[in-house]
Amino acid sequence: MTSFAEHPAPATVVDHYLQAIERHDYDRARALLDERSFRYVSPISRFDDVERFIEHMSLTGGILQRIEIRKQFVDGPDVCHFMVFHVQISEKMKVDVVQWAQVREGRIARIEALFDAHPYRILFESEAN
Fold this sequence. Notes:
Layout: H1 10-22, H2 26-31, E1 39-41, E2 46-47, H3 50-60, E3 64-75, E4 78-88, E5 92-104, E6 107-115, H4 118-123
Parallel strand pairs: 1-6
Antiparallel strand pairs: 1-2, 3-4, 4-5, 5-6
């Protein structure tokens, strides 16, 4: 059994993931996700498969220009961020996002994101089946 001390702090793991997403470095982002138990839930999509999630992110992530972190809370393996995603769809926009990530053994096992999905529903077909 691996001890908690052998892994980076959950906040560090999630910070590295957000930096990778902001840089459109999807290989780095993938490496920070737990392939055995990963789950992503948002108003417009749900994924249980890391590869499908990363494929989706690489196709849709091009609109992301910058992530502004407003506040971070950490409670054991849980890391919550209040953020502003600076995106460009047809015009530049700011999207308020709350993201709750759960880290297990140094990898992100679950991400739940909350945001106003209206602008995205226009562009991307919903996968929230």
